[in-house]
């Protein structure tokens, strides 16, 4: 099938590339000329495991190309995916200006039936806005071409995006148009060959499903973080509690890891957007209010431990920091807890040497010229002379360090672990002072 993907970011690039992998003829559009130039020159503007090779393969096979030319991209695809950003507006609601702009550009150039598929995460009712924008553009040209609007929210996880897209748990398709339903069903059939995981529904339910999923996941994280904080005070170990409850199939093991709060490009903004939608309709989502508050507080948990240990004046203190991205296997720094932690340490007079396997360039972009913050290209290189090691992201490469070497490099054998990477007993044996989340600290 001929497919156009509007917006070549994390979701758009993965969507376009995976659809090309199954033999579709795909054009990816972006308004960011720099991004398109990188892609046209064989580079990839984001880090996502496996993506670069898959792009290369499909570009050389002639099934995938990149453009900034809107007319060309609208002409190309019978199915037009909208995968542009929906960042939070000032009041937390989803800013739909990019989605509406994309819809308008389709309306401006289309001639002939098109299926317009909203893949961006958008509030309930956005399908109607997309439809209205297209009708307006068509009317201005005196055109009456028919089209369908579909909601097809994306559930991929950054860091495992290719795997998630190629082997989805479910594919949600919201539409009331039979032709669009058939086309979308055929497009996704190769992705669900061993058993059918396509859920057809109406547009509004599909839009709501995406927010419901992210809000539920954010709730699990905040719930566990609050229980971790209580466990710590009560002498319980949250890691044992986690296993104790995860074994219940009604609860399950996923998304029960305590830490330094959720971040990234989705949970924070989607939780807020859902709250604003509810408010606009006179409904208060009390659980989500608490989820957000708890997450905000959790981003300071590691800092609170540091202050308790060193005092509020951190002048002259130097910290080694492992992990900048909001989670492993991505370079995404949007709403990353590391930013809150680093900002606090610097504002209180400390200096920070940070390492992350892939997101140093993104960190430099979002924290430009921050005085006292430096970067090193290996985990061990940040350690020399540091008063403590602070672990913020659970990259695999941090999990089995040479503890003797870590101890030898640090000024103090002191670790604040925001991801519970190590066994406290082992840390005690290795001679570390160790501060995990929701477990007993080791003070030696
Ligand atoms: N990142 C994720 O893990 C993830 C997962 C599921 C859903 N989503 C949702 O998918 C959407 C996209 O997220 P993302 O992380 O890929 O964003 P992103 O910022 O990485 O990419 C969006 C791209 O759209 C481009 N763009 C904006 N307006 C455009 C226009 N009118 N025409 C063409 N291109 C345009 C931007 O230049 C940018 O490259 C959001 O709604 C997000 O909530 C994201």
Task: Explain what you see.
It is built from 17 helices and 14 strands. The chain is of the alpha/beta class. α5 packs parallel to α6. The protein is elongated, with a radius of gyration of 24 Å. The structure holds nicotinamide-adenine-dinucleotide. Nicotinamide-adenine-dinucleotide binds next to α1 and α5. The active site is at residue 266. It catalyses: UDP-alpha-D-glucose + 2 NAD(+) + H2O = UDP-alpha-D-glucuronate + 2 NADH + 3 H(+).
List the helices and strands and how they pair.
Layout: E1 2-6, H1 10-21, E2 25-29, H2 33-40, H3 51-60, E3 64-67, H4 70-76, E4 79-82, H5 97-109, E5 114-118, H6 126-140, E6 147-151, H7 161-166, E7 171-174, H8 178-188, E8 198-201, H9 203-234, H10 238-246, H11 267-280, H12 286-298, H13 301-310, E9 318-322, H14 337-347, E10 351-355, H15 360-366, E11 373-375, E12 388-391, H16 403-409, E13 414-417, H17 424-429, E14 433-435
Helix pairs in contact: 1-3, 5-6, 9-11, 9-12
Nicotinamide-adenine-dinucleotide is lined by residues 6-12, 29-32, 35, 83-86, 98, 101-102, 120-121, 154, 156, 158, 265-266.
**Estimated structural class:** alpha/beta
Uncertain runs are none
Report, as a whole number of angstroms, the end-to-end distance. 64 Å
Number of domains: 3
The outline comes out as: elongated
Counting DSSP H or I runs of 4 or more residues, the number of helices is 17
| CATH homolog superfamily of the largest domain | NAD(P)-binding Rossmann-like Domain
Strand order of the largest sheet: 3-2-1-4-5-6
Q: How would you describe the oligomerization state of the chains in this entry?
A: single chain
The major sheet is characterized as:
6 strands, parallel
Task: Identify the CATH class of the largest domain.
Answer: Alpha Beta
What is the CATH third-level topology name of the largest domain? Rossmann fold
Q: What is the CATH architecture descriptor of the largest domain?
A: 3-Layer(aba) Sandwich
What is the residue-mean pLDDT, rounded to a whole number? 97
Radius of gyration (CA) equals 24 Å
Helix fraction by DSSP (H/I, runs of at least 4):
40-55%
Percent of sequence in beta strands: 5-15%
According to DSSP, the number of beta strands is 14
Bound heterogens, unique: nicotinamide-adenine-dinucleotide
Active site: 266
Binding site for NAD(+): 30, 35, 86, 121, 158, 269, 334
Protein name: UDP-glucose 6-dehydrogenase
Catalytic activity: UDP-alpha-D-glucose + 2 NAD(+) + H2O = UDP-alpha-D-glucuronate + 2 NADH + 3 H(+)
């Amino acid at each position: 099938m001929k497919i156009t993907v509007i917006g070549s970011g994390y979701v758009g690039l993965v969507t376009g590339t995976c659809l090309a992998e199954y033999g579709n003829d795909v054009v990816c559009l972006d308004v960011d000329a720099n991004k398109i130039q990188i892609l046209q020159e064989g580079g990839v503007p984001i880090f996502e495991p496996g993506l670069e090779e898959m792009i290369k393969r499909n570009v050389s096979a002639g099934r995938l190309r990149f453009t900034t030319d809107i007319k060309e991209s609208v002409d190309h695809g019978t199915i037009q995916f909208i995968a542009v950003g929906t960042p939070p507006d000032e009041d937390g609601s989803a800013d739909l200006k990019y989605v509406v702009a994309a819809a308008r550009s389709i309306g401006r150039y289309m001639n002939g039936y098109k299926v317009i598929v909203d893949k961006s995460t958008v509030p309930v009712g956005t399908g109607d806005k997309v439809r209205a924008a297209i009708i307006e553009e068509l009317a201005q040209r005196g055109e009456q071409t028919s089209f369908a609007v579909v909601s097809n929210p994306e559930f991929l996880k950054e860091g495992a995006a290719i795997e998630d897209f190629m082997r989805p748990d479910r594919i949600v398709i919201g539409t009331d148009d039979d032709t669009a339903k058939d086309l979308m069903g055929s497009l996704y059939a190769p992705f669900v060959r061993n058993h059918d995981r396509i859920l057809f529904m109406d547009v509004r339910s599909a839009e709501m499903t995406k927010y419901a999923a992210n809000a539920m996941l954010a709730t699990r994280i905040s719930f566990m973080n609050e229980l971790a904080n209580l466990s710590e005070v009560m002498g319980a170990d949250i890691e044992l509690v986690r296993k104790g409850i995860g074994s219940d199939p009604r609860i399950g093991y996923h998304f029960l890891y305590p830490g330094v709060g959720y971040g990234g490009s989705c949970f924070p903004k989607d939780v807020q957007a859902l709250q604003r939608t509810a408010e606009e309709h006179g409904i208060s989502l009390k659980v989500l209010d608490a989820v957000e508050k708890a997450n905000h507080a959790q981003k300071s948990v590691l800092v609170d431990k540091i202050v308790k240990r060193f005092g509020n004046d951190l002048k002259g203190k130097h910290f080694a920091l492992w992990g900048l991205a909001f989670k492993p296997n991505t370079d995404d720094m949007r709403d990353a807890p590391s930013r809150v932690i680093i900002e606090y340490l610097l504002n209180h007079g400390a200096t920070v040497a940070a390492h992350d396997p892939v997101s140093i360039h993104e960190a430099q972009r979002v924290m430009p010229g921050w005085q006292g913050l430096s970067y090193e290209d290996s985990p061990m290189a940040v350690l020399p002379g540091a008063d403590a090691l602070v672990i913020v992201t659970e990259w695999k490469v941090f999990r089995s360090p040479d503890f003797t070497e870590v101890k030898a490099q640090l000024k103090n054998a002191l670790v604040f672990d925001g991801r519970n990477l190590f066994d406290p007993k082992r840390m005690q044996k290795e001679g570390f002072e160790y501060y995990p989340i929701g477990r007993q600290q080791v003070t030696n």
